[in-house]
Amino acid sequence: MLRFITPFCGLRASVPGSRSSSKNHCSHNLRPVPQCTARKSPFASKRSQSKRAAGTRILTTMSGISYDDDNIFKKIVEGTIPCYKIFETEHALAFLDAFPMTRGHSLLIPKASGFATVMDMPEDVAANVLKELPRLAKAVHEAMGSDGVNIIQNNGGAAGQEVFHAHFHVIPRFKDDGLVKLAGASGGMIAQEDALSIQSLIQGKL
């Protein structure tokens, strides 16, 4: 069965390892589930039933997608939840996904909080995080001996985001790994009239 890359990015009920003070684990999860069953995920139901900690703030962002001040990635940055850290800079943190799609699946996140999606990140924050992406992708690719690499960034629930702290997936790909390959085109060329209209709409929002 083919496995889909994008549906989930959530939290398991328990953190791997027995010591919460250890900095060797992370409990982030990108579950490979068929698209048609995504809404029935047990993780989605656990999250919907869970209660937020007292004092948790839900922040409004520029994208209109709320930032949960109690999210797991913020806790990883703060050190209250451990992770398998690959490297850390003043502005960014890279670590292994604890429930990887393929061997070597890694994550890159901004250490600054308050940014639910990449659309909310100021230019300087984005630049300081994104400049680390090529070296992480190169290191993952070479270390795993992969045939290719997917770099995936989900924004909003409709796009498969479930941890609302901006982050990037670096997923090494292998021939016949069973994951869906992201095609570059749908097969139908865009009509000129439609292209000009969309081009104008997007340019008007810059």
Automatic annotation (TrEMBL):
GO biological process: purine ribonucleotide metabolic process; sulfur compound metabolic process
Database matches in InterPro entries: HINT, Histidine_triad_HIT, HIT-like, HIT-like_sf
Molecular-function annotations in GO: adenylylsulfatase activity
Active-site feature positions: H167
Short sequence motif Histidine triad motif: positions: 165-169
Superkingdom: Eukaryota
Start and end residues of each stretch annotated as Disordered: 15-52
Name this polypeptide is given: HIT domain-containing protein
A Pfam family recorded for this sequence: HIT
Domain HIT: 72-180
